[in-house]
Amino acid sequence: MKIALITANGRENEIGLRTIAACLRGHGHDVFVLYPLARENHGLGRLTQADAELLLPWCADADLVGVSYMSNFRKNAQVVAETLRKHLRPDAALVAGGIHPTLWPEDALAHFQYVIRGEGEESMVELAQRIAAGESVRAIENLAYLDEGKPVLNPLRPLLQNLDALPIPLLEYGRIVFRRSATELAPLDPENVREFFWQAETPTDGEVAYFYGIHTSRGCPHKCAFCVNDALSRLYPQKKGSATIRRQSVEKLVSELEWMRRTFPFVQNVLFTDDVFTARPIEELKRFSEIYRRRVGLRFNCYLSAPTLTEEKMDALMAAGLQTVSLGIQSGSDRVNLEVFSRPIPRRQNDRAIGIIAPHISRLDKKIPVKVHFIIKNPWENRRDVLQTVRMICGLPRGVSIILFSLNFFPGTKMLERALKEGIVRDFESDIENRDGWSDKRLIFDARTGRPSAAAILPLYAVQYLRSLPKWQRGLAIFILGNPITYWLLGTWRFSSRIRRAVEIWAGSRNA
After folding, report:
1. Dist CA 64 CA 88 (whole Å)
2. In the CATH scheme, what architecture does the domain 2-165 have?
3. Which pTM does this prediction carry?
């Protein structure tokens, strides 16, 4: 049967969808994976009806159409579903999957015939097989559907334990279809293949760096209140293995990368998208370092967390070819991390991790050796918490790039539950910031009041200006800006129209 799998997300997020496509292809189905968002929309791009109509030539005669999406791209998925429903065959199945339908299936069922919750490889294959055979699908584990208008959520099947048994995610000429221009979706071929791959933001020495993304584990050692990993752990409380991180073997991940090098020799960088790559034991990382260096030999990026990093692990990563490392700190305040975010990683552990990374900065990527993430615009942080974050940002080594995110409230998370209980979020559709779009201007201004947010302005000032000041000037600036009166004035319209206009111009230039 013909199957079209569509991502409503940005392009770099779809390793899971391509894995499902490979499973379906292995069972003899005619599968296409469609990417309607352009490369520049890898963040939070919007899809219009005209964009969705570009999918029609690939979907109109499909027997099964699946749409995968995260909460940030919920509106995109709805536009795709509404557009396709008018043109699909009457007997075609329209299915939603991904993290948002998994955690809020009732919302997805308002637009889709079926929802696949949780890991979709086995369930999608069973769904396709039963539809092809003309059999009932209603008993399939992980499936959700409406019965007389009421949602039915079937039991979840156990989590996959042997990730080595999964095929290499589908990346085949003619079967990947991606957005090349405002009016064109084109099949992947040898001439346009470089346009498909994710590129580094800033070319080095004029050379474009192409990245191959690979996800070698499932699960996270942390259960932060703002993160969907916590929601997933509560969704699978009784399932065997749900409390552990499941990993591909070193041999499996290396074999995929060897295939990638043979198939796409122009790719010179690897991005490990595991939530925490350093959750692997040290002996496993040592083995990875030795085999990866010998059989793959490409520079790579990965994510880590402070509690899982040791000097021995850092040495192993460096020996393997580490290029850029990303570390989630989230807040400089222990109170926020421990009590608000349920993230049991105190400041001293993050400082220790930075201390382990810092001596290696000169051997990492010349432009972006280290990325550190902070979450700002948190309604439960106070002025003291914000100042602790600002001081931490200003104290980081010069080679560290700071990435700021505003706090989002995702379905199924403890953070959203608390926000609803305390009235911080009143209406799911309109009160949740940055769900379907993102800009620096939205980062600076509070969506509910329209006023600038001091809790965002101070960290932004720290990143853009304060870090470059001499130490004594930096301390004086933090003292002045963090003064209770100044802090209050930063959140008013009347404080300074010039500063406000400068912030708006800066935000606009960043998004031009």
Report:
1. 9
2. 3-Layer(aba) Sandwich (3.40)
3. 0.91
The CATH number of 197-438, from 3.20.20.70, 3.20.20.10, 3.40.50.720, 1.10.150.130, is 3.20.20.70
Long-range CB pairs of 137-142, under 8 A, 24+ apart, other chains included:
137/93, 142/116, 142/117, 142/118
Give the C-alpha separation, 341 to 97, whole Å. Answer: 27
pLDDT digits (tens, 9 = 90+) for 201-236: 555 565 678 899 999 999 999 989 999 888 888 888
Report residue 429's pLDDT band, with 50, 70 and 90 as the boundaries.
low
Pairing mode, strands 217-218 and 210-214: unpaired
Q: Which of helix, strand or coil describes residue 269?
A: strand
**What residues pair up with 301 in beta bridges, in sequence order?**
271, 324
Alpha-carbon gap, residue 164 to 98, rounded angstroms: 21
Q: CA 467, CA 462: separation in Å to the nearest integer? A: 6
Contact 481, 462 (CB under 8 A): no
How far is C-alpha 334 from the chain's CA centre?
25
324 in Cβ contact with 297 (< 8 Å): no
What angle in degrees, to the nearest 10, is found between the helix axes of 383-395 and 471-481? 170
CA–CA separation, 313 and 296 (whole Å): 19
